[in-house]
């Protein structure tokens, strides 16, 4: 496969491989291209949290870095500790408590406290009492079994609320650590108060789906835990995401070699999900995690909060996903199936190669998608291969029937590339696991190299005994 062909207006037909249509004239508003950016979704509070003071009273306290004892009136609720010098003057907590770095052992308190000799009622057990209540408010992540067996103080994970890894409609993802081993993890904290009570069961959807999955291209779920106010989804912590990689690249977009390497991993993960009748429903670069900072990194899909179990011929109608990456049938509230993920792959491929979104939200997608001059402006797409444009066209098909499936996308000529196979085989050798290429393809590429007098390293043709652990 070569990439020497340049794009002409005729080449950039935005229809599929067949069924060409007459192009619409370009609308004046089509002159503005929306740059790629991180999209933030938000949810308004729909259920008011029960307000209440967990504990209040006068307290003498000091820190392990400042032995000077200070006396303030403490009020602790589910969200904050507020300290007062008197009944009306609030002071910042940072002026009183100084905690240096995360503590992996909750048995070591970051402060010492004792009851004051004021007229307020107090006793010698006031310090430990405050410690116990603060632990309760700090959202320790533990299973109910662990809580029953080990007590409230031995939580399994520590959340670092100052290390925000990401956020979405269903919660915020923080950095964290497994207390016993010190292993870094990512912890999604889902606040139940942000959703109606009848939807709380849906909040557990992500964990229940992830628990059934085992694939090198899907983020690993370590555990799912729950308190009366929160759901915690604990996952492996990876390096970053695909959007960050695109935005930080020199030209604000990725070369075809890197994009191929990432997209084929996305497709292999989707093939696994679709075989299990699971549609991700919210594919976007933010949900494509990278395991390292390598130029050709391992990819893992994450954020299954919108994922749905969808049968071979089934259609769902609930609103899901992020609008910029959503298939037209979802935006129009029509029925959708697993093909909606393939549209999202098309958008991911487009934004990775161009650094811009393909559509103007103020205009009809059907009109835009048939307008090659708008979809593929020459200043960006002249250097991009016809094969890449062809795959995008077949993924961004408004007709679900004509849109490429995972299998068709993987078989497209843009992904049947020697350099890609070479990169994948080297990657699999490093991983010690063959899950992106197949042994049956080796002879084809061996012959391809022989015809071009190219020397193949013997280790690329050596099969790996270790195989990817997959649950079917």
UniProtKB/TrEMBL annotation:
GO terms for molecular function: ATP binding; diacylglycerol-dependent serine/threonine kinase activity; zinc ion binding. Residues 159-415 form the Protein kinase domain. InterPro entries: Kinase-like_dom_sf, PH-like_dom_sf, Prot_kinase_dom, Protein_kinase_ATP_BS, Ser/Thr_kinase_AS. ATP binds at residue 188. Residues 1-16 have a biased composition (Acidic residues). The keyword ATP-binding applies. GO terms for cellular component: cytosol. Residues 1-26, 110-129 are annotated as: Disordered. It comes from the Eukaryota. PROSITE patterns: PROTEIN_KINASE_ATP, PROTEIN_KINASE_DOM, PROTEIN_KINASE_ST. GO terms for biological process: intracellular signal transduction; phospholipase C-activating G protein-coupled receptor signaling pathway. Belongs to the protein kinase superfamily. This is Protein kinase D4.
